[in-house]
Design a protein that fits this description.
alpha+beta
Length: 419
């Protein structure tokens, strides 16, 4: 019964059109045979002759052709021509116009249909490793294909709701959790973990695994990235990031089969200036923010838009704060600037806000000692110092992201009143 249900689920409009056409041909052929043999049962039997038999056969073929064409025309969706560089697709019966070359995951996202995945990342190469994004298409009905690897084409139909797709998602999720410790209450990724979300949405409610789980020793990757490699599901996002984006090839897969581990080949810490991005690409709690560790939960934080201010790029970021205290910075997507990446100095510079040697109020130096002063008193002292200095003794500290022309203009606009 399950096989019959799966076969019916896998039937698309073209399959039902062929069934209808075959049934029509069978009925018309039977009618022509009865006419040729003069079998009783017809209200007005036709004379038995070769010409009548030939007429019956020709009529059957013509009727079959007409009905077959009408059924196919009714079953096949009629789309307006897509613009140049785009194609028409159907995702679970929903029409979408998507860019040519998009994969099935991105095409489904255009019509708010989510295909679960772990290893896929829009900015990294395709690995096809997690096998969670398998769906059915009209090109190969009844067979599962990887949604991250297959590209769309005109008229393609994508089906994500068949019993085979659902069963594969449950089985793959169960496989990914075989060695995962499921320690969500003490994991820093809790509340923003892709493994949690996908497991709740597509996995089984009860695990059948009762054997001993493996334990992977943690590796020291430096002062910025914390590791809990027992949680790793070997999606290889971090490996591809270090090779394709950072260009450092610092991470890789070690050993084979069930002993596969992700780590550095030489045991040295990550030295890239954008190493913190492995935290963002990791879908589980294997690689987390060491500076932010155990400080707050994701649902306690408020996100405020901001900009990175340590280089000329001006990366778009979110500052996450709790009760007015900035606890971490994460990248904000902007295709024209930083895409989805962030440098380490922009990611961790918020720690300087609460440094013990940071000046948080105006101070004046008298007799070699610093004392706290009011803002009015401090500003008046600064103006007096500037006015007493000559032009040759006056300089302006300009932001390194500014051009020479901007620095010259700012100096004259803001300092001309002193002379």
């Amino acid at each position: 019964m399950d096989e019959l249900t799966h076969a019916l689920d896998a039937f698309g409009p073209w399959d039902w059109a062929c069934v209808g056409a075959n049934l029509t041909a069978a009925v018309l052929g039977f009618f022509g045979l009865r006419c040729w043999r003069g079998m009783p049962g017809l209200s007005s039997p036709l004379p038995v002759s070769a010409s009548n038999a030939a007429l019956g056969v020709v009529t059957g073929v013509m009727a079959f052709t007409v009905v077959f064409g009408l059924v196919l025309a009714a079953a096949a969706p009629a789309f307006a021509p897509a613009p140049e560089g785009f194609v028409n697709v159907l995702v679970d019966g929903k029409h979408a116009v998507v860019p040519k070359g998009d994969n099935l995951i991105e095409a489904a996202r255009k019509v708010q249909v989510e295909i679960p995945y772990f290893c896929y990342h829009p900015r990294l190469s395709i690995a096809g490793q997690c096998r969670l994004c398998l769906v059915e298409t009209s090109d190969m009905p009844g067979r599962l294909v990887a949604g991250c690897q297959v590209r769309v084409k005109e008229g393609l139909q994508i089906i994500t709701t068949t019993s085979a797709v659902k069963e594969n998602q449950r089985a793959v999720m169960e496989f990914h959790l075989v060695n995962h410790p499921v320690d969500c209450p003490i994991c820093d990724q809790g509340g923003e973990c892709e493994l949690q979300d996908v497991s709740m949405g597509y996995g089984r409610s009860v695990s059948r695994y009762v054997d001993r789980k493996r334990v992977v020793p943690d590796e020291d990757m430096g002062p910025l990235v914390a590791t809990d490699m027992t949680r790793c599901i070997q999606c290889t996002r971090c490996v591809r990031f270090s090779a394709e984006i950072a260009g450092t090839y610092e991470l890789g897969g070690i050993y084979r089969g069930e002993n596969l581990q992700i780590g550095t080949f030489d045991g040295k810490p990550l030295m890239s200036e954008i190493s913190g991005n492995v935290i963002d690409v990791c879908p589980v709690g294997a690689l987390t923010n060491k500076v932010f560790r155990y400080k707050a939960r994701a649902w306690e934080l408020t996100a405020k838009e901001s900009l990175g201010y340590h280089d000329a790029l001006g990366s778009n970021i979110y500052l996450h704060s709790r009760r007015g205290e900035v606890l971490r910075a994460v990248p904000r997507d902007n295709e024209a600037v930083n895409e989805c990446w962030l440098s380490d100095r922009d990611r961790y510079s918020h720690e300087g806000l609460y440094s013990s040697d940071r000046a948080t109020q105006p101070m004046l130096k008298e007799n070699g000692h610093w004392r706290v002063a009011a803002w009015d008193e401090a500003l008046a002292a600064a103006v007096a110092v500037l006015k007493s200095a000559t032009v040759a003794e006056t300089g302006v500290l300009v932001h390194p992201a500014s051009s020479n022309e901007e620095g010259f203009r700012n100096y004259h606009e803001r300092c001309s009143w002193l002379y």
